[in-house]
Amino acid sequence: MGSHSEGPSKAEELLGRIERSAGRVEERIGSKRGDDFAAIHGRVRRRRAEERLRPDEAETPNDQVDEGASDETGADH
Q: Where is the composition biased (Acidic residues) (predicted)?
């Protein structure tokens, strides 16, 4: 029983160490790269969304007025 009870506590201790180390690494990455990545990724998403909307907005009002775009919009999406 003595050696049996030592096994789980050693495993738990190792898991605790791993979790703490992983937490420290995540904090470092999160504070430096994670925030920067999120900011850059957000900008890229906005640019892509704007690029997608601009041509559609420029073309669809003319097309939709003539063609009745409710059918086209439904088919595209």
A: 58-70
> Torsion-angle region of residue 2: left (phi > 0), alpha (psi -120 to 50) or beta?
alpha
Alpha-carbon dihedral of residues 67, 72, 74, 75, nearest 10 degrees? 150
**3-class SS of residue 16:** helix
* Ramachandran category for residue 68: left, alpha or beta (phi over 0 → left; psi -120 to 50 → alpha): left
**What is the C-alpha to C-alpha distance for residues 19 and 22, in angstroms, rounded to an integer?**
5
Structure tokens at 69: 């775009």
What is the pLDDT, as a whole number, of residue 52?
Answer: 77
Measured between alpha carbons, how far is 77 from 49 in angstroms, rounded to an integer?
15
